[in-house]
Description:
Elements: E1 10-14, H1 19-30, E2 34-38, H2 42-56, E3 61-63, H3 71-85, E4 90-93, H4 109-137, E5 140-145, H5 158-178, E6 183-190, H6 199-202, H7 205-212, H8 224-234, E7 245-248
Parallel strand pairs: 1-2, 1-4, 2-3, 4-5, 5-6, 6-7
Amino acid sequence: MNLFDMKGKVAVITGSTRGIGRAIAERMAEHGAKVVISSRKADVCDQVAKEINDKYGKGTAVAIAANISSKENLQNLVDESNRAFGKIDVLVCNAASNPYYGPLAGISDDQFRKILENNIVANNWLISMVVPQMIERKDGSIIIVSSIGGLKGSTILGAYAISKAADMQLARNLACEYGKHNIRVNCIAPGLIKTDFAKALWDNPENLKASTARSPLQRIGIPDEIAGCAVLMGSKAGDFMTGQTVVIDGGATIS
């Protein structure tokens, strides 16, 4: 058996119409999984699901729009995913918010709350909705897309970095809670990746040069370079990994 084979598995990936989330959905589909494409806009979800179905076969992907800030939306995402595919084996909490760049002294209460609620609380909501069926089957993999921002101090990404550090602790806590049920909970911590979400950090050539100059690989990453780790965590290859944060950053945090 191929350790990375995901045939027979169903994966729900939030924020999967672009960037890292889409790359994860594409690669999981390539490895045989059924995938649920989800983001806020239904038409975009439909388009991405269609493209994946065209590439990997009809019935590989379904589109279910959901806003992670809405508990009702997330419950609907779980219910409709179960209705479409009968179960959820792998949950990838990828969607996140960052409406503010600047010092923490300048962030509004609403902006701070939005970051913490969308990036931490909503993850816990969604995981709690999916876990009961995993407990029943004694099997499941939960993947939270964090960030190296959670490992370093920042003068402009303070609240976001706090939320991403908390995601790592959320994974550790839930790994301890659910390990007895053979449910694995892990984080991926990407470095600077060329996505629309991180555009403010790489769009300016001078900023990009400064951001990558000290990293061993001396370049920005691409979404597909994160996806392989998610396949590892969601497949048999990751069966003995739990509570871990895997850093994929071109070496930026070690140099």
